[in-house]
Description:
single chain; alpha/beta; Alpha/beta knot; five-stranded parallel beta sheet; 5 helices; 5 strands
Amino acid sequence: MELEIWWIGKTAESYLHQGISVYLKKINHFANANIREFKEAKGLKNIKSIKQFETPALLKAIQVPGIIPILLDENGQNFSSLEFADWLSKNTQTSNRKLCFIIGGAYGFSDEIKNHVPTKIALSEMTFTHQMIRLIFLEQLYRAFTIINKIPYHNE
């Protein structure tokens, strides 16, 4: 199974780099997971301009055949860890296409991106930085794989 995890911009903090590396290595025991960084807007102050800058590359990438894009969005569907594991299991077994989880920039996604991607999931009703959510999501992805494979990690 192959997975893609995309995000806008480089990861800024070394502790996040370390955590991301740890969880990516763990995830790769279950799936071939790849991270792709998209260029972020620098020097722009207007939120609309920032989203307009980030949209074309993402829009082009999500239209590539063979992937199922999934936005990590605050207005997406909320799951418990068990529910997310079940969702992940069903979606990886029913399709030969790659699941592609996409984390937006500091201001989220443009309406154009949201309109092109029907599947949206939320990690929490709380707000996290776009940098921090990278590590949090990878931990949840790893947790889901351990639940699916009945490996002790998740506690109820």
